[in-house]
Automatic annotation (TrEMBL):
Signal peptide: none annotated. This is Endonuclease/exonuclease/phosphatase domain-containing protein. It comes from Nocardioides fonticola. SUPFAM superfamilies: DNase I-like. Residues 96-323 form the Endonuclease/exonuclease/phosphatase domain. It comes from the Bacteria.
Length: 343
């Protein structure tokens, strides 16, 4: 009887263990009593099996996504790289100044009646501009009839041209549109022979490099009486102030014009602005103007260099004008070199 009961207990325990193991519960080995034994193993008293260390689940590998820049971003990057590359190049062009002798001076009743009329002189003036290989020229005394002819024969654009009306074309700047494009234009007044007249400020962009620069063109009073002398000096000082304001932008600045002074203009304007004159001269140890200079000037902001200065006396000799045509080749250094604040 006792043997039968022990067998029954053993069978029951075997079934329970099988169920537990099948259910995923890990148990340690339990020694069952022999069939003939009196004791029944107490399962609750069996020592708990240590938990097996959990095997970490392998990390999921997600296919990477290749980021492609948009066409707009690529275009902007290319444009920025091109602009940086072009800014590292110098800009070279021929700049000139020319008082063409206004047509009113040679018209009936004018004060230069020994000169031919403008209809004969202006085509010769256009030929001289082309001969000098000019890209930008500051004109003085150019009247509407002369300006129209000069533009037609050179193919150049003009500023202000007729923007201020037909009475204010005198100080227009002509420029080669295949080389430069218009950015902006303005003016400032100086008194010229008792009347305030606009002096031209033109901002152009070099098409090849994208570099921008300012051009200032002036004509101040002639004469040596007290009134004209005072207005001429005031005009020089106003021009110097305008040039300094423009140079503060960091862009190159060029000044052309009939200044109606030689050494006086040089020593009055060059030291105040730090500009360099195409004709030469120095302000390193005081003011040392060049040996020979006309009243017509081509000057530029520091950093610009000049070569091939040409004081063309043929306009006077050929009676095209009572002023020389003055030109020079200007070289604007790369942007980083032109900016004195650049590290």
């Amino acid at each position: 009887m006792r043997a039968g009961r022990s067998l029954t207990v053993a069978v029951v325990l075997s079934l329970v263990l099988t169920a537990l193991v099948g259910g995923g519960i890990a148990l340690t080995r339990v020694d069952l009593p022999s069939i003939g034994g009196d004791a029944v193993t107490d399962l609750a008293a069996a020592p708990a099996a240590p938990k097996a260390a959990a095997t970490p689940e392998p990390a999921r590998i997600v296919s990477g996504v290749r980021l492609r820049p948009t066409p707009q971003a690529l275009r902007r990057a290319r444009m920025a790289a091109r602009a940086e590359r072009l800014a590292s190049l110098p800009v070279t062009f021929v700049l000139a100044t020319f008082n063409v002798l206004g047509s009113n001076h040679t018209a009936p009743g004018g004060d230069r009646r020994k000169f031919p009329p403008a209809s004969a002189r202006t085509p010769q003036a256009a030929a001289l501009i082309r001969q000098h290989g000019v890209s930008v020229v500051g004109l003085q005394e150019v009247k509407p009839d002369q300006l129209t002819t000069l533009q037609r024969l050179t193919g150049f654009a003009a500023y202000p041209g007729f923007a201020f009306g037909s009475k204010e074309t005198d100080n227009s700047i002509l420029y080669d549109t295949s080389r430069f494009e218009f950015v902006s234009g303005t003016s400032f007044p100086v008194v010229f022979e008792s009347r305030a007249r606009p002096q031209t400020v033109l901002r152009l962009r070099d098409r090849a490099t994208g570099r921008e620069m300012y051009f200032v063109n002036m004509h101040v009073s002639a004469g040596h009486d007290a009134r004209d002398t005072a207005s001429r000096i005031a005009g020089h000082l106003t021009g110097a102030e305008q040039v300094n304001r423009l140079m503060a932008t960091g862009l190159p600045v060029f000044l052309t014009g009939d200044m109606n002074d030689r050494a006086e203009f040089f020593c009055r304007v060059i030291p105040r602005t730090g500009m360099v004159a195409a004709v030469g001269g120095s302000t390193a140890n005081g003011c040392a103007p060049p040996a020979r200079m006309p009243v017509d000037w081509v000057v530029a902001s520091p950093g610009v260099s000049f070569s091939d200065y040409w004081l063309d006396e043929t306009p006077v000799n050929r009676r095209i004008s009572d002023h020389f045509l003055v030109s020079a080749r200007a070289t604007v250094p790369p942007a980083a070199e032109a900016d004195p604040t650049e590290d």
